[in-house]
Specification:
Helices cover about 30% and strands about 30% of the residues. The protein is built from 10 helices and 22 strands.
Length: about 475
């Protein structure tokens, strides 16, 4: 149903200039028009009580604007094609807010989010969930700094409790899972170090507790009647001593990525700057290499040491590194790839990339894969409709074999020869970290596709159970 319009018109009788339109459902638009379409700047008032005021492009929110919700919430920031995209801040009537990156209406990129109970997260988001590296300061005084997957703690991370206790090690499913150590501010209480399963230290793999230097238990051995002497806590130093001890370990030296001693006093801007400048990946990789060496897992150890070498390099902006790769090959950079790379992200920040539909040609894709070698933490890559040549497939297979983290690749809608499929199947069989290769619309033989899928499923299961299996092998 056409709206009722009052305002300026062009020679064809179309709304043009300034005017107001009212629809039968109660929606109202007041602002500038161009040849019959809302275009320029204006204000929408919707029947449900929501409103939008800002830039408009041919009837859609596009540019900077403010969207006010009927329930009291507000979004102020960038829009593209009627959806939040770019930098923006969303607040709720409960006092919660999210300030940072957006993509297609979803929270994505670097941001700060504060919940109604006072919890504050500073780090990275993807698909409106915490993803990648980040720091969570809870209202109860605890702090977690480490890695997230789909909104839960997963990967390497450190938890510091208000009373000085803390955990450092592997996480999965939002709980300690894998190799890790619980530290206690009371030296009389022994460390809990070993393999954790869903937050519980597996008794079978508990190491024998050793007295720690500086505690009474290291000095007192037995009483006069031969019975073990009682342990007395006379350790009067800072309750964060365990964190200092952690820093003194060889694997973590020089990578003090925890704000010490009080992680809760920094502003949101300072936290983001700290996260950008100091990443725990270097420490995590070195520790992973040492742990793999201890259990004799040479492929993991090699990957860990390779990652550690990459992480030790100077951090540079991802776009800058990509442009350098193009210059080295005397190629014009792909605008599509440049636009996909976050403007302020370093190569260490890149964890997912989707360059589907940004055709760059064979040489352009080979240059892009050279760039990916310098992004040590990327684990997911989408290359849909790229017209991949056999040479590109060969380069991708080499990347999968040598990269320390890349494990999920979407190759949908690329025509592939049978030899390409066999090469991918071989990589899945020889590289256990590869967990998912999507091959929809590739015209590959069904048998090859099934072989790749079965191998990827086996790899995923192996990786999930690998930590426990490796520990059992040493017991």
């Amino acid at each position: 149903m056409a709206p009722r319009y009052e305002g300026e018109l062009n020679k064809k009788g179309q709304p043009h200039g300034t005017g107001t339109a009212k629809w039968g459902n109660g929606n109202v638009y007041t602002g500038t028009w161009c040849n019959g379409a809302q275009h320029g700047a204006g204000k929408f008032s919707f029947r449900g009580g929501d409103s939008y005021e800002g830039q408009v492009k041919y009837g859609k929110r596009d540019g900077h604007g403010v969207y006010r919700y009927a329930d009291g919430g507000v979004y102020e920031g960038a829009f593209v094609d009627d959806l939040e995209e770019g930098e923006g801040k969303r607040t709720w009537d409960t006092g919660e807010y999210y300030e940072g990156g957006w993509k297609r209406g979803e929270m994505e990129g670097r941001a700060v989010a504060v919940s109604g109970n006072g919890d504050r997260y500073a780090g990275w988001f993807a698909a409106s969930a915490r993803e990648g590296k980040g720091r969570l300061d809870r209202a109860d005084g605890s702090t977690y700094i480490g890695y997230w997957v789909d909104g839960v703690r997963e990967g390497r991370g450190t938890l510091l409790m208000r009373n000085g206790d803390g955990y450092h090690g592997a996480w999965a499913g939002d709980a300690p899972h894998g190799e890790g150590t619980w530290y206690f501010s009371t030296p009389a209480k022994p460390l809990q170090k070993g393999v954790w399963v869903k937050g519980v230290l597996n008794d079978e793999f508990k190491p024998k507790t050793q007295p720690r230097p500086g505690s009474c238990s290291a000095l007192s051995t037995s009483s006069a009647d031969g019975a073990p002497a009682p342990v007395v806590n006379d350790f009067n130093t800072d309750t964060h001593w365990w964190l200092e001890e952690l820093w003194n370990e060889e694997a973590l030296s020089g990578d003090h990525w925890l704000s010490y001693p009080d992680p809760g006093t920094a502003t949101a801007e300072e936290v983001i700057a700290d996260l950008a400048a100091k990443s725990p990946y270097n420490a995590a990789s070195a520790m992973a290499a040492d742990e793999a060496d201890a259990i004799g897992a040479s492929p993991t150890r090699a990957a860990g040491k390779q990652a550690a070498a990459l992480h030790g390099s100077r951090r540079r902006l991802a776009r800058e590194v990509y442009l350098d790769c193009c210059r080295q090959r005397s190629l014009a950079p792909s605008k599509g790839i440049v636009d996909v790379l976050p403007a302020k992200a370093t190569t260490h920040d890149v964890i997912r990339l989707d360059i589907s539909h940004t055709y760059s040609g064979e040489t352009g894709l080979l240059c892009f894969m050279q760039f990916l070698q310098q992004c040590p933490h990327i684990y997911e890559l989408a290359l849909q409709r790229q017209s991949l040549t056999p040479k590109c497939i060969a380069a991708l297979c080499t990347l999968l074999e040598t990269h320390p983290a890349l494990k999920n690749v979407d190759l949908s809608h690329n025509f592939m020869a049978h030899a390409d499929g066999k090469r991918l199947a071989h990589v899945c069989s020889t590289t256990p970290k590869v967990e998912n290769i999507i091959l929809e619309g590739t015209r590959l033989n069904r048998g090859v596709v099934t072989q790749i899928a079965v191998r990827c499923t086996a790899n995923k299961k192996h990786n999930f159970l690998g930590c426990r299996s490796a520990a059992a092998a040493t017991s």
